[in-house]
Design goal:
CATH topology of the largest domain: Isopropylmalate Dehydrogenase
Strand content: 15-25%
CATH class of the largest domain: Alpha Beta
CATH architecture of the largest domain: 3-Layer(aba) Sandwich
Helix content: 25-40%
Strand order of the largest sheet: 3-4-2-1-5-12-11-6-7-10-8-9
Largest sheet: 12 strands, mixed
Number of helices: 11
């Protein structure tokens, strides 16, 4: 079977006061074969940023993804999205929020139409977007809504050493525990299982589900959630034919000897998943949204206002997100339409 030609990837603007622009420029300088990309951004902003940082990045505007693929080798292609207010590094301005949101929406539309193979989202400032009327908790929920799958997407963090999925995400620990149900764990596991088969090429994914309490409850002595919440979910998933293990003691399931025993760790709350991954390899961590009809990845860091515009931004995580987006897009292209739901 011939290898499909890679469609370009669309990089969103992110918060223009953060490090996304610098990382995009440095990612183009570090460009490598197979994953051409273009930015949905303000070309004047990127050109000024490149000059200020002393980065030799020629900028050229494009009207579509096909032109971007042809241009990528000689210049950073930019689909123009002018900002109403000049961006100042480290100082977010809600006046620019509509363009930031539109950058995400347009990239998603291009992916839905098959014009691009995937989207890679630069970090946003949720507070700046909220002040401008943004009604979603973040990228994941917004993308799920505009691609027609509200409530069906979940977040995976991946690096070469580990993949993790939190069942609950950006809520307090108290609320996360209250939100946990066998049904929520089962729903997350089903989405993960399907994504690992479709996008990661793992024929029989091995899912490890974490316990909630120390020592996974110590048979009820340290808590009963493993018995009342986790085991019913595991039993249901096994009845559906999935290879699922657990509940794993959270303090030992991420060790060097434990990690090779599973393909993904399904964790019960945000920090249970993200602390081990970021400790192991934050630089190469990638945020992947599972359950969407498009491929979306993102670097595993924020806007980093404290170093924005100072020439200190490290593009490693963005490069990892670009590489993984390209790989997942290629995997979907073998299955037919890039936007076909799994």
């Amino acid at each position: 079977m011939p290898v499909p030609e890679p469609r370009p990837l669309a990089l969103t603007m992110g918060d223009p006061a953060g490090v996304g622009g610098e990382c995009t420029l440095r990612a183009w300088l570090a460009r490598r074969g197979g994953h051409p990309f273009f930015a949905l951004d303000d070309p004047n902003r990127l050109a000024a940023l490149a000059r200020g940082l002393g980065l030799d990045v020629p900028i050229d505007t494009v009207a579509n993804a096909a032109d971007a693929a042809k241009m990528f080798g000689r210049a950073l292609p930019v689909f123009p999205m002018p900002l109403p207010v000049a961006a100042i590094p480290g100082r977010p301005d809600s006046a620019n929020a509509p363009v930031v949101v539109d950058s995400i929406a347009r990239a998603a539309a291009m992916a839905m139409s098959g014009e691009v193979g995937a989207i890679v989202t630069n970090p946003i400032n949720k507070a700046a977007l909220y002040s401008a009327g943004f009604a979603h908790p973040g990228h994941t929920e917004f993308l799920a809504a505009i691609t027609g799958v509200p409530g069906e997407s979940i977040m995976m963090l991946a690096c070469p050493l580990l993949r993790v999925v939190p069942v609950t995400v950006h809520v307090s620990l108290r609320d996360a525990i209250a939100m946990l149900t066998p049904e929520a764990i089962v729903a997350a596991a089903r989405t993960v299982h399907a994504a690992l088969r479709r996008d990661f090429g793992i024929a029989r994914p091995r899912l490890a589900i974490a316990g909630l309490n120390p020592h996974a409850g110590e048979q009820g002595a340290l808590g009963t959630e493993e018995t009342t919440l986790v085991m019913p979910a595991i039993e249901q998933l096994r009845r559906e034919g999935m290879d699922v293990s657990g509940p794993w003691p959270p303090d030992t399931m991420f060790t060097r000897l434990a990690r090779p025993q599973y393909d993904v760790a399904i964790c019960l709350y945000h920090d249970q998943a993200l602390i081990p991954l970021k400790t192991l390899d934050m630089d190469h961590g990638v945020n992947v949204t599972l359950g969407l009809p498009i491929v979306r990845t993102s670097p595993d860091h924020g806007t980093a206002y404290d170093i924005a515009g100072k020439g200190m931004a490290d593009p490693t995580s963005l490069l990892a997100a670009i590489d993984l987006a390209g790989e997942l897009a290629r995997a979907r292209s073998f299955l037919g339409s890039p936007a076909a739901p799994g």
